């Protein structure tokens, strides 16, 4: 997806053919008893001809074109994400390397639906104890640098969501991106994703709050096993 993208936190069934069974119908009236001496007459109605089985309807739809194969994740992106405990997704996403010195981010991802852009910064390869304690403030500071307003207070994603994503911890902050962030999308979410002791900063830009729940299909990545 996405992003999911699931989420991303981000996806034809042919009905079975049925042939109705037909059977001949024979009607036999009840035998009557007469007082006069005469042989009993049995009236038998001939069996009606069984109609031919209905032929299956022939589809008038053109055969659908085969789905285009997913473009593989660029090797530099996969190599950059691996030490940070992330596996990037190819299905439903296209990826472009960007200049960190100009944008603060390393990679941009666009969903196939065109409803969001994700920006990844593989930031700290190793977190010390002090950084771990100050992680909410750190993610809040990252969001503050991307807006002209005031971000929402940082909050921890619940353990169920963190487990679904396959990482150790996620801190989230909502913000309204500054004009230089995007000319298309006007809502943003920042996630500080911790896995394997490393910190990745992820921004999701959209028309709403896409990616507020960081499921794999919604953000284009999942935790590496």
Tell me what you see in this structure.
- With 225 residues, the chain is α+β, with helices and mostly antiparallel strands.
- It has a domain of 149 residues: 3-Layer(aba) Sandwich (Protein Transport Mog1p, Chain A), CATH 3.40.1000.
- The protein contains six helices and nine strands; from the N terminus they run H-E-E-H-E-E-H-H-E-H-E-E-E-H-E.
- Strands 2-3-4-8-7-6-5 form a seven-stranded antiparallel beta sheet. It has a two-stranded antiparallel sheet with strand order 1-9.
- Strand 3 and strand 4 form a beta hairpin.
- The longest helix is centred in the middle third of the chain and has 10 residues.
- It is globular, with a radius of gyration of 32 Å.
Q: Which spans of ≥5 residues are poorly predicted at pLDDT below 50?
A: 1-44, 52-68
What top-tier CATH class of the domain at 75-223 fits best? Alpha Beta
Number of beta-strand segments: 9
| Helix count from the secondary structure assignment | 6
Alpha-carbon distance between the two ends: 20 Å
Output the structural class.
alpha+beta
Provide tags for this entry.
Protein Transport Mog1p, Chain A; alpha+beta; 9 strands; 225 residues; seven-stranded antiparallel β-sheet
Concise overview:
With 225 residues, this protein is of the alpha+beta class.
